[in-house]
Amino acid sequence: MKVTVYNCREFDEKELFLKYEKELGIEMVLCPDAPNEENASLAKGSECIDIITSKMPRELLQIFASYGVKYVVTRTIGYDHIDVKAAKELGMTVANAPYGPNGVADYAVMLILMTIRKMKSIVNRTRVQDYTLKGLMGRELKDLTVGVIGTGRIGRTVLKNLSGFGCKLIAYDVYENEEVKNSGVTYVTLDEMWKQADVITLHAPLTEDNHHMINKEAISKMKDGVMIVNTARGGLIDSEALISGIESGKIGGAGLDVVENEFGLYYYDHKEDILCNRELSILRGFPNVTVSHHMAFYTDDCTETVVRDSLLGCKCFVEGRENPWEVK
């Protein structure tokens, strides 16, 4: 069997792909670039392609289907960048490669702590040898209510991590989890979440139903000075509403590992480029907003897991075996 791998990072993934090529007996074509019309021909003879968070609209999927590709796996948990409906209509199977929850959960807690302690401003002052304290007073988690939206594996791990800080924990999910309830965490409605939470951290997948769940109306219902952390998907937050909330002081700070319209920006060197994302530029400029480039997942354990499992899924598909990574 043959697999064409796109977005293959030379400095960490390539060695792993070569390792599993031998172990699993898979012939591989490795491409460092995102899949596009020009390099789609690399997939000729491959039933499977392996990607990350690159956009896969219907038009591009049609091209790959014409080359005989029947299986598209993304080395991520989320798969909202793939037009799953179009893929199914084209007879293509879509799969993902979930990794352990700890890396993202750790990162989310780090962003919460950085946000409530104004770490961006502290680092900026220290860099220019300004050792004053005015404006840097932080808050303590024990005095705060933290709301976790999404109680899947990552959200539950965040709740577990936060339990040792002594803060009040509340949660929201369309599907409530008994493990969460038994841990003493209270499920609330979204309206109650907006009213009660001092800190809101997002851990939900992006769907048509929850796109821009944090918008102007939601922000207006939140506590003054609320802090928002997002390590899930940028589309969960209306960027313009977020910017307005920060400018007005309604939002006291934010920690963002993801933003809207990040496709094509992250994981590339753009330091000499004019970015076509005005909201990102504005958000990066705020002293109380920390922005990182969609890397909460990025640990040694995660990297090996997604490479290995994306290929194991390909092998299951080609061999006609049950595939636990297939998106139903």
Lay out the secondary structure.
Blueprint: E1 2-5, H1 13-24, E2 27-30, E3 48-51, H2 58-66, E4 71-74, H3 84-89, E5 93-96, H4 102-116, H5 119-127, E6 145-149, H6 153-162, E7 168-172, H7 178-182, E8 186-187, H8 190-196, E9 199-202, H9 216-221, E10 226-230, H10 239-248, E11 251-256, H11 278-285, E12 289-291, H12 300-319
Parallel strand pairs: 1-2, 1-3, 3-4, 4-5, 6-7, 6-9, 7-8, 9-10, 10-11, 11-12
Concise summary:
With 328 residues, the protein is an alpha/beta fold.
Structure, explained:
With 328 residues, the protein is an alpha/beta fold. The protein folds into two domains: 2-99 and 299-319, NAD(P)-binding Rossmann-like Domain (Rossmann fold); 102-291, Rossmann fold (3-Layer(aba) Sandwich). The protein has helices at 13-24, 58-66, 84-89, 102-116, 119-127, 153-162, 178-182, 190-196, 216-221, 239-248, 278-285, 300-319, and strands at residues 2-5, 27-30, 48-51, 71-74, 93-96, 145-149, 168-172, 186-187, 199-202, 226-230, 251-256, 289-291. Helix 10 links the parallel strand 10 (226-230) and strand 11. Helix 1 runs parallel beside helix 12 (300-319) and helix 4 (102-116) packs across helix 6.
List segments where confidence is low: pLDDT < 50 over at least 5 consecutive residues.
Answer: none
Number of strands: 12
CATH architecture of the largest domain: 3-Layer(aba) Sandwich
* Rg of Cα set: 21 Å
CATH hierarchy class name of the largest domain: Alpha Beta
* Approximate strand percentage: 15-25%
Shape: globular
How many structural domains can be distinguished in the coordinates?
2
> Strand order within the widest sheet?
8-7-6-9-10-11-12
Largest pleated sheet: 7 strands, parallel
Quaternary structure state of the chains depicted: single chain
Mean pLDDT score: 97
Which fold name corresponds to the CATH topology of the largest domain? Rossmann fold
Distance between the termini: 23 Å
Within CATH, the superfamily of the largest domain carries the name NAD(P)-binding Rossmann-like Domain
What is the structural class? Answer: alpha/beta
What is the percent of helical residues?
A: 25-40%
